[in-house]
Every structure is written in C-alpha cells, then in structure tokens.
Amino acid sequence: MRRLAVAAGVGVLALTAGCVAVSWPHDSKLVPRHGGHPVGAALWSWLFLGFACAAFVLYLGGLWLLRRGGGMRLVLALALAVQLAPLAAPLLISTDAWTYWDYGRIAGVHDANPYVGNPDDFPADPAFRWVGTGWWDTSSVYGPAFTLASEPLALADDGSAAAAAWTYKAIAAACMAAVVLLVARLTGSPFAVAFAGWNPLLALHMAGGGHNDAWMAALVLAALAAAASGRRQLAGAAWALAILVKWVPLLFLGLRAAEARGTRREVAHLGFAAAAAGVLGLATWRYGFHWLDSFGPLARNANHESRFAIPHRLGGHAAALGLAALFGLAYLWLLREAWRGRARLGLCAGLLLVATPWLVPWYAVWAVPLAAVEEDATAKLLALAFSGYLLRQAIPL
C-alpha cells in the first residue's frame, strides 16, 4: 500500500511536470499575454487540463492509500517537489502577478497612491500592457502589508515582465513549501502532508500563477504553528500580517478568539498589536488612510459573479444574497462551536467558498491547508470537492 501511495505521488509530480511542459510552446494560450486575452492553439490547453485532471485523480488515490499512514520522508519530499515544479513554467493562466507588479510600480516608481490611482493612469509604464484589462481602471484591492512589500519588489524587477513573474511565482512557491512543512509540523501525519502538498491545483496556481493567496495561507499556518508551540506573541504577529495581506483571515481569527475565550486559554495581544501598528503606521505614512479604500473594490466585486461561483450556478444575484445570509448563520454556529472548544477553520473556509460570488481556482488555498491540519471530515470533503471542481476554471480553451 505504501509503495502504491508513493507511486501515486510520483505520478502527480510527473503529470504536473507535463502541465509545465505544455505551457512553453510559443502558441500556447496558457501564458496570459495581451492583457489576459491570450491567443494561440487550444491543443496545449486541452493537454494541460488532461494532465491536471489525471494528476488530481492520482492525488485522490494517493490520499486513499495513505489514510492509514505512510512514510513521512517520501511523502514530504514529493509534496515539496509537486509544489515547486511549476516554477519551471512561465506565468500561468492569470495576470495577477503582473497586476501586483504594476501596483508596486505606481507606488515605488511613480510615487503615487495605488489605493487611489489605477493602472490606466500610467499607460506608458512598462507593466501596464501586461495587466489584465479588467484591472486597468481598478485601484488596489490588497491589504497594506502586501502593497508595502510590492514596492521594493517592483523596484528590484525594474521594467522586466519576466522578472516580475518569476519574483511572485518564486515567493508563492516558497510560501507553499512553508505550508507543507508547517502541516508536517502541526500534524506529524503523512496523510495531512499529502492532502496539502500533493494537490496539483494549488501547485499550478501558486508556483505557476504567483498568487498572493499563498502568502496569506503560509502566515495563517505559521500563526497556528506558533500558537501550538506556545509562542503566542509570534502567533499574534503572524495573524496580523495574514490579515493585512488579505482580509479573509479575519473570519478565522474570530473563531480562534472565540475558542480561546470559551476554553479560557491564555492569549497574548502584544504581538498582534505591534505588527498591526507597525504595518498600518507605515502604510498610513505612505498612502494616508486610503488603504481603507481597498474595501471599496472588494465590495464592488461582491456584486459581480464569476462563472464557476456557486451563486452563479444557482441563479445569480438572488442566490448570492441567500447564500450570504446562510453563511452568516453558519458563521454564528461556527462561533458557538469555537466557544465550546473547537474552532473549525477549514470548514469556515470551505463554506466561504460556497458562498462567495467571486470564485477563482487559487482560492482553494484558503481551505485545503486548514482542512489538512484539522480532524474534520466535512472540511476535507469540501476542500477536495472545490479542488476538483475548480480544475477547469480559468484554463483558456
């Protein structure tokens, strides 16, 4: 059984490498050129999808074989290899990494405010033509910690789109490697490591697409690991940074706070406060209080629906409102569960994926690592279901 499980992991790695290979032909549509509207032969995209689906089937098979245990070293090595393999690809499918680059240049090069200015305010900038057209007239939707980090990265990348893509891909890959190692530390379980690390969807969109959701996931796992080892101040700082990269972890922190209060677990607030004060103070110095405006584009996006979002599948705006209300009720129930001693972060993330009207494949990283570290079968099933469901989305066929 263990040998078969390792064979499944090797198969996931080989098929992920196949996805990398078919992204390189000059007429591949998988590289998001021309403002996110690539042209070329659909053959490579179909091959990419076929390899990704086959890898996902082997991933599920490997998990089934590992459900009763396995050898940690090989499972961990394969998990790291799978998550790092798409570093060998060009930027895949999404222009987000180039959008990060452009926002960083707005602040770092043009000394303007990315929470006020838009990419199309600087059409002569070398980053502009690489930004997805849907973001041309949109100010930054990202937290101030991420925006502050994007400035020196933009200066380092100068005017090179290739350097910018590689920078964000490399950081996302490093974050996913950290996620895998943190899952191993938190659980000591080969199954949990494979659950997080053999997932081909995460590899292709993090090391492949360079999305900052990997930063957020790594920081949340770091917060959980620091708390588990008694380093509560460090855990608080990691929570603050995760929230200030992207706002989603606020929901998870609320559950952890309710769990701590309900179980009378000792908590420490200084680390959180110091990290938050440092980042927000620097962000306010750089951008004024306009970093608060990042909620504006998020609110506008909440009124739009992506094609694979569950509310869209169920009928549109009315379904979105209904699912949002149901998520609110579910969150109240999760708060009660947390107060009783069980903060179900993975389930919260999975239910959020059900309710969000804007759903893209890389959002699966919100749920998969958290489900991996918790003994919660429902959370695991939701995370796997969304990983499979989102394989097709965003691939340009």
Note the topology.
Layout: H1 2-21, H2 33-36, H3 42-66, H4 72-84, H5 96-108, H6 144-157, H7 161-187, H8 190-197, H9 200-206, H10 213-228, H11 232-245, H12 249-263, H13 270-287, H14 295-301, H15 310-314, H16 317-339, H17 345-355, H18 368-373, H19 377-389
Q: Which overall shape is indicated by the principal axes computed on the Cα atoms?
A: globular
User: Percent of residues in helical segments?
Assistant: 55-70%
Instruction: Give the termini distance in whole angstroms.
Output: 37 Å
Strand elements, count: 0
Structural class call reads mainly alpha
Number of helices: 19
> What pattern of helices and strands is seen along the backbone?
HHHHHHHHHHHHHHHHHHH
Low-confidence stretches: none
Integer-rounded radius of gyration:
20 Å
Average pLDDT score: 93
Determine the strand fraction and express it as a percent band. under 5%
Main sheet: strands, sense, barrel: none
In short:
This protein has 397 residues and is mainly α. It is built from 19 helices and no strands.
Structure explained in plain terms:
By secondary structure, the chain is mostly helical. It is 65% helix and 0% strand. The chain contains 19 helices and no strands. Helix 7 runs parallel beside helix 10. It is globular and about 55 Å long. The mean pLDDT is 93.
Q: Features of this protein?
A:
397 residues; mainly alpha; 19 helices
